[in-house]
Design goal:
Elements: E1 22-27, H1 31-42, E2 46-52, H2 56-65, E3 70-72, H3 75-79, E4 86-89, H4 96-105, E5 109-113, H5 120-133, E6 137-140, H6 147-157, E7 164-173, H7 187-190, H8 194-209, E8 215-223, E9 252-259, E10 264-270, E11 279-287, E12 291-297, E13 305-311, E14 314-318, H9 328-344, H10 364-382, E15 386-387
Parallel strand pairs: 1-2, 1-4, 2-3, 4-5, 5-6, 7-10
Antiparallel strand pairs: 7-11, 8-9, 8-15, 9-10, 11-12, 12-13, 13-14
Helix pairs in contact: 1-9, 4-5, 5-10, 8-10
Bound molecules: nicotinamide-adenine-dinucleotide (NAD).
Length: 398
């Protein structure tokens, strides 16, 4: 261990004085880890005291510039620190499960990058562990925190579209494979390609806007035409070292999802495709008396919304002017801290004492997204429609 653990460790989470800052350990130094570090550092009520990652120079540069006391290479050393309240996970997907399980079982709250895990079964174990330990497990579906998504959600609450029978959601890239040859493009390290990476974000936005319908069946295809041939790499990507692992994930996938209530969703994701898109996020809702479209072209922060209706019988388009500031991770983390505080103040006694203080915050909704992505890969492999397994998770969405 290389961390400097000077001074007396403060009290573990159960005895931390009311209102004292949550003590956070962040794991990962790439886009995700550094974004978590900055978000926790900027927010009141939390303090990053430990940071972990394998790139030594970056570890010191990031940690020292943010005043982090303890800098270590391996995640195990952070999770073993008894005086932390929160573990924040920004590492390759296959490490989410072991880190979260160890952290939850040692009584820490967990903020985890998406996807929750590489498979639905592993995600279900994590949700069960959070419930058993009665600790918050929150997942970084940050794009749903966009101001234009929030606007659309408020708009839909006024019921302007009639019955929304079909939705199209996609995140498509022309040449954006994140780190050809890194963990991202290997199935055992990542769980999949763009569908688990980008598709899970737009799936999350669509399910959120639609009020959490339950996906019952999936019929999908998946192709790997560019990546395995070395085409379609992103200019920027993972900071993790390249490996010799094969490119054995898809670079394009498309799926038709049917909800239990008869509605449907067409979901597409690509890291690379010969098409007119550059970096294109879209969610389009088709209703019986109106429609709405979110279209984010290359991370645009304005002009992303269109609403469709008839005015005096004439097809009409309106374009609400909504500006989208950044900081979406910070918004999810703010909610994560608020969930911890409200559970702590609820007067409950924790799962062992019979009261689930953080019910609804055990990662339940992220589990359903993991089940859907699993089913998409299973359907693509089987070449037919498959059922999405259902999880009976007490106190939250499936
Ligand atoms: N929500 C978003 O917008 C968003 C964006 C990018 C990535 N992500 C997610 O974040 C996660 C990480 O992605 P990234 O792009 O930051 O990856 P990255 O490869 O750039 O960084 C991964 C980090 O994990 C660290 N790491 C690996 N093994 C470790 C170990 N044993 N102990 C400690 N640290 C270890 C590496 O040293 C590195 O710093 C992935 O799950 C990805 O899906 C989410």
């Amino acid at each position: 261990m290389t961390f400097d653990q000077s001074g007396t460790p403060s009290a573990p989470s159960e005895t931390r004085p009311d209102g004292a800052d949550l003590r956070v350990g962040v794991i990962g130094l790439g886009f995700a880890g550094s974004t978590h570090l900055d978000a926790f550092t900027a927010l009141p009520g939390a303090r990053v005291v430990a940071l972990a990652g394998q790139e030594e120079a970056r570890l010191h540069e990031l940690g020292e510039s943010r005043g982090v006391e303890r800098l270590v290479a391996d995640w195990q050393d952070v999770v073993a620190m008894p005086d932390l309240d929160v573990i924040s996970i920004g590492v390759p997907n296959a490490l989410h499960h072991p880190i979260a399980m160890a952290a939850l079982q040692s009584g820490k709250h967990v903020f985890c990058e998406k996807p929750l895990a590489t498979t639905g079964d592993l995600a279900a174990e994590m949700v069960r562990a959070a419930r058993d330990a009665d600790r918050v497990l929150e997942v970084a579906y940050n794009h749903r925190r966009r101001a234009d998504v929030a606007f659309l959600k408020d708009y839909l609450d006024t019921d302007p579209l009639g019955s929304i029978y079909h939705t199209r959601a996609s995140w498509l890239r022309r040449a954006g494979i994140p780190g050809l040859g890194s963990w991202f493009t290997n199935k055992s390290a990542a769980g999949g390609g763009p569908m688990i990476d980008l598709g899970s974000h737009v799936l999350d936005i669509a399910l959120y806007l639609l009020g959490e319908p339950v996906v019952e069946t999936v019929s999908a295809v998946a192709y790997g035409e560019l990546g395995p041939a070395g085409r379609g790499g992103a200019a920027r990507g993972a900071i993790s070292a390249r490996t010799d692992a094969p490119f054995d994930v898809e670079d394009f996938s498309s799926a038709l999802l049917r909800f239990t209530d008869g509605r449907s969703l067409q979901l597409q994701a690509s890291w690379a495709s010969y098409s007119k898109v550059h970096e294109d996020i879209e969610v389009e809702l088709l209703g019986s008396v109106g429609g709405a479209r979110l279209h984010v072209d290359d991370y645009a922060t304005q002009g992303t919304l269109e609403l469709y209706s008839d005015v005096l019988g004439a097809p009409t388009v309106s374009r609400p002017q909504v500006t989208v500031p950044g900081g979406h991770h910070q918004s999810v983390i703010e909610g994560f801290i608020a969930a911890i505080r409200s559970g702590e103040n609820s007067g409950g006694t924790g799962a062992a004492g019979g009261t689930a203080r953080f019910s609804g915050h055990y990662g339940e909704y992220a589990l359903h997204r993991s089940r859907v992505v699993d089913a998409i890969y299973a359907s693509a492999q089987a070449g037919r429609e498959v059922l999405v397994p259902s999880d009976e998770i007490e106190g939250g969405a499936r």
